[in-house]
Predict the structure.
Amino acid sequence: MNYPLLFALILNLWSADLIDLWSADLIDLWSADLTGAVDQPAASVSASRGTPRAMIICGHPGDESHRDMYAQSVQKLHDGLTSRYGFSAEHVRVRFGSKPGPSDQAAISFNRGPSTREAIEADVAQLREQIQPEDALWVIVLGHAHFDGRHAFLNLPGPDIRADEFGKLFRGIQCREQVFLITTPVSGFFIKPLSAKGRIIISATEADQEVNETRFHLPLADVLSDPPNDEEYDQDRDGKVTVLDLYLTVVRRVMQIYAAEKSISTEHAQLDDNGDGWETELQKDYLEEELGGLAKKGVIPQIKPKADGALAAQTVMNITPIPESTETPDLDSGSADLDIPMPSTESGQTTE
Ligand SMILES: [Ca+2]
Ligand SMILES: [Ca+2]
């Protein structure tokens, strides 16, 4: 009997069908209580946030070294969303393009199964039935992709999916917050078909023949799983960390990778969030010349209200502080509160 497989099957069935029995109210009650327990000012915000939902889709990961690299990124993304950004594990759908291996951690070991086209379509169909207007939806795509001269495709186990077909899957979905991060080569071609009012779409590349393997997923996974301090994260210096800051922080790190290698960047990330289907290389105004930008020292670019970046700059990332349970309480001060329960941040933990 293949017990890991059986367990994964049971977990998938459970996450596919029984999660819906959890009401959003219960989740909100939980997060409000827990957030209150660690005295987080965002408690009232969390309670009205609806359910944050995510899909992490890694297509066919390729050879063994790439497979391991993508598996690590997926694990970090999963851990980051669940431990630092308020997503509960049962609402983070992971699909991975090859079978789990013995060295994989929970996000891969217990993923929902291969990222076939059919499975992705089924996941989105199910998501459509579940998602509520007050919910947040994050979709993160990793792996390989190709361009046939006319269309970009995600490389999947089995038939690939074209950019416009992928966009169509999500057409018309409406909820409070929508963030798509397409980190593959030729991902710029996914912006137009995904573009919609109220939706932030970020791609690792231009809508051009940027067909080389991308780095974008690496710093994205690092930044989400280990949020940098505000000095780095708050790129536009407005005192809050937003999706714009996430974008700029990741892109800065991508360009630093290429600069350190003394190689020319073969990926130029783009963002569209004004729903017009046209992407913008926003980072140009924020990055210094040595990182491929045109930033002027001491000048913080202003984004016009209807321009790309305006919605991302308003979309705050509510970062959960790291529990301080490992610190030794100061028993002499008389101020230590020994009764405060702390949320677990172990990888793969659910939020029950
Ligand atoms: Ca900011
Ligand atoms: Ca645009």
